[in-house]
Design a protein that fits this description.
The chain contains 15 helices and 12 strands. It is an alpha/beta fold and 304 residues long. It folds into 3 domains: 104 residues, Rossmann fold, CATH 3.40.50.10800; 101 residues, NadA-like (Rossmann fold); 76 residues, NadA-like (Rossmann fold, 3-Layer(aba) Sandwich). The structure holds 1,3-dihydroxyacetonephosphate and iron/sulfur cluster.
């Protein structure tokens, strides 16, 4: 089917079904271009909670769609590719977290939003990379010991910012971990004027080389508001489409053009069309898990 025909059908179905299309910054360019809202995990959670639409087509990965469902249980949340997961989120499960909590009975549990609903249900607080530091500072006003799962690199970054220690889990994002200092050094040689911006899911060796370390939305805001015009981007390369679109006349260079999250790229225009046509793949979460996980997620949205 020709490209424009697919886009027209998606737009007609959106109206017919009262649907909204939420798109993460790492999605393919053509998915960005059909979005009602493009953003980071935090922005998408907030948008999912406030939309009046009956149907949310979530163009991202499974934990993001689950978070939208938990915040809006009365809405139908669709994930166009049911296999779009997050390897980091899969590095911890509810049983392992229960065992870790048993070893630290005085600690409160803070999970990165990149976790399953079952893990969130075991946690007191949730955070994204956009508000992790703020959440930790808030928690420390009430508690002394924090278990922070599953991203060891985000935990190490926040730990250095706040000056506190966490009980951590050995999880990480394989896409961000594959961006190495040599990539930044080479890019800096090629573009000596460029500011280096990296995601806190990157290793400490990488964040140490950066001018700015922030979430994907933080990156988009920074490049828009600064007078600088050249940037080396240390995160998944899908975000560069949005940066170029929002900032004509500025230049964006990926730290590594291999920083591609295959799960984020599973969503295609055809799959969005099939999803709206057949109302697939609907995200469901058991009621008890949903109710427990909502407490942690709502705290995150409130404190954001
Ligand atoms: P953001 O919340 O910064 O968009 O990050 C989500 C993610 O999965 C990064 O890999
Ligand atoms: Fe998960 Fe990494 Fe992909 Fe983000 S980029 S969805 S953390 S695998």
């Amino acid at each position: 089917m020709p490209f424009m025909e697919i886009v027209d059908k998606i737009n007609n179905l959106k109206k017919e079904k009262n649907a909204v299309i939420l798109v993460h910054n790492y999605q393919l360019p053509e998915i960005h271009d059909i979005a009602d809202f493009v953003g980071d995990s935090l922005g998408l959670s907030i948008e999912a909670a406030k939309t009046d639409a009956e149907v949310i087509v979530f163009c991202g990965v499974h934990f993001m769609a689950e978070t939208a469902k938990i915040l809006s249980p009365q809405k139908t949340v669709l994930l166009p590719d049911k296999n779009a997961g997050c390897p980091m989120a899969d590095m911890i499960d509810a049983e392992s977290l229960t065992a870790l909590k048993a070893k630290h009975p005085q600690a409160v549990a803070l999970c990165y939003v990149n976790t399953s609903a079952a893990v969130k249900a075991q946690c007191d607080y949730c955070c994204t990379s956009a508000n992790a530091e703020k959440m930790v500072r808030h928690i420390l006003t009430k508690h002394q010991e924090i278990i922070f799962v599953p991203d060891k690199y985000l935990a190490q970054f926040v730990s250095a910012q706040v000056g506190c220690k966490f009980v951590i889990w050995e999880g990480y994002c394989p896409i961000h971990a594959a961006i190495i200092p040599e990539h930044i050094l080479r890019a800096r040689q090629l573009h000596p004027q460029a500011k280096v911006i990296v995601h806190p899911e990157c290793s400490p060796e990488l964040t140490a080389l950066a001018d700015i370390v922030t979430s994907t939305e933080g990156m988009c805001k920074y490049v828009k508001n600064t007078a600088d015009t050249e940037f080396i981007i240390g995160t998944e390369i899908g975000i560069i489409h949005r940066m170029k679109k929002d900032n004509p006349g500025k230049y964006f260079y990926p730290a590594s053009d291999k920083a591609v999250c295959p799960n984020m790229k599973r969503t295609t225009l055809e799959k969005v069309l099939w999803s709206l046509t057949d109302m697939t793949h609907e995200i469901t979460v058991p009621q008890d898990i949903m109710d427990k996980a909502r407490l942690a997620i709502e705290r995150m949205v409130q404190i954001a």
